[in-house]
Structure formats: C-alpha cells, structure tokens
Design a protein that fits this description.
Elements: E1 7-10, H1 18-29, E2 32-35, H2 42-49, H3 56-59, H4 64-68, E3 73-76
Parallel strand pairs: 1-3, 2-3
Length: 78
C-alpha cells in the first residue's frame, strides 16, 4: 500500500479555471477538494480588496494539518 500523500495547491488569476481543474484533479487522484476562498475571513477579504498582503496571523487561520489528515488534497486558493 502506498503511504505517499498528494498536496496540490492551485493559484491563478480570477476566472482562469482553478475550480474546474481542481475538481478534475481531485477526482483523478481520489483527493479531497478544498476551496479556500470559502473560508476567507473578513480581514482577508478586506486585504484582497485593498490589494494588501495577508499577515502571518491571517495565514495561521488555515489549519493545514487538518487538511493533510484527510489524505490526498487539492487546495484552490484565490
């Protein structure tokens, strides 16, 4: 049994097909698809709107260990 895990993180411009590709990859690899946009905090949305970078505190909001525990994961970010 293969114990290797897959973690794919998709970045790209708005409307370039990250959701489509992410879901297709998740199906192909039998992975969990996580759309990180759905969990953006208000502070993160404000930062995006004002084109400001995320702070370390904002980044810590996402629990990558929890995602990793699901096995193979495809993550779509912005």
């Amino acid at each position: 049994m293969n114990e290797d895990k897959i973690l794919l993180i998709l970045f790209g411009r708005l409307g370039c097909g990250k959701n489509f590709v992410g879901r297709a990859l998740a199906r192909h690899f039998g992975a969990f698809f996580y759309d990180a946009d759905e969990d953006l905090t208000l502070a993160m949305r404000d930062a995006i709107q004002s084109q400001a970078p995320f702070t370390d505190e904002m980044r810590e909001y996402y629990d990558l260990e929890e995602l990793w525990s699901k096995g193979n994961v495809v993550v779509k970010v912005l």
